[in-house]
Amino acid sequence: MGSKSVAHFLLLLFLNLLFFSMVSSRTPPRIAPPSMCAPPRRPPPPPRQPPPPLPLPLPPPPPATTNRII
């Protein structure tokens, strides 16, 4: 009985291999991963320039003069 089960197992294995080899020949070629199909990426933007320096503060106005008539 053991030899029959081994023969049965080998027959099923052979039939599976035969079936899958026939099925695999009908499948379309493998599609390339998206990274190969994607359009080329844009180059990264240039580094940001530092902001221009702040202008120097204005000097204080001269003291006010009064034109009093004495």
TrEMBL record:
Top-level division of the source organism's lineage: Eukaryota
- Residue spans of biased composition, Pro residues class: 30-64
Going by the UniProt record, its keywords in alphabetical order are: Signal
Keyword check for Signal, yes or no: yes
State whether keyword Signal applies: yes
> What segment(s) does the record annotate as region Disordered?
28-70
Leader sequence segment: 1-25
Q: What is the protein name stated in its UniProt record? A: Uncharacterized protein
Q: Give the originating organism.
A: Vigna unguiculata
